[in-house]
User: What shape does this take?
Amino acid sequence: MAAGKLIVFSAPSGSGKTTLVRHLLAQDLPLGFSISATSRTPRGQEQDGQDYYFLSAEDFRSQIAADAFLEYEEVYAGTYYGTLQSEVERLWAAGKHVLFDIDVVGGLRIKEKFPEQTLAVFVQPPSVEILEQRLRARGTESEEKIQQRLAKSTQELSYAPQFDRVIVNDNLAQAQQEVVALIASFIAS
Ligand code: 5GP
Assistant: This one.
């Protein structure tokens, strides 16, 4: 497959999108996960080259200068996230369609660059209150980081109408079924 399809999952942090993406990857579908690069430090059990390519801010900026990113963003002040062109090429060369778990602006940028090949899915949490509960239950971040994420989430919710599909994640089993059917049919189309 010289150039496969691109499937973008974007959502406010804590909407359950990563759970849905993992569920999709566990199916027997020709999908490969796009490992993003970031300048943030690893959280919990995260591994370099598996969850993210962890780069220093300086290395990240050199890659920007070398035009190595398909899209990148300073998602939080001083913290960069981006998709390396080489990552998409690696997955396409392996015969896979590429699955992205990225921020809403990055997701829409990919859709804009590859309009024909991309399906952009927005995972919507049932409410901002539930989002806050989920973020706190995760217990991995400081109060300041939680507040930062909530402010960003509220703003991100306004992007939903620009996506091809919106999945409301209030019932996980149902949302899982919905995304598998959606992606299987997109791949087959
Ligand atoms: P986290 O720090 O929780 O792993 O991710 C923070 C945010 O950065 C999330 O909204 C996540 O989707 C986004 N993100 C992860 N990878 C990328 C990427 O490659 N590009 C962009 N634009 N955002 C990303």
Notes: The mean pLDDT is 91.
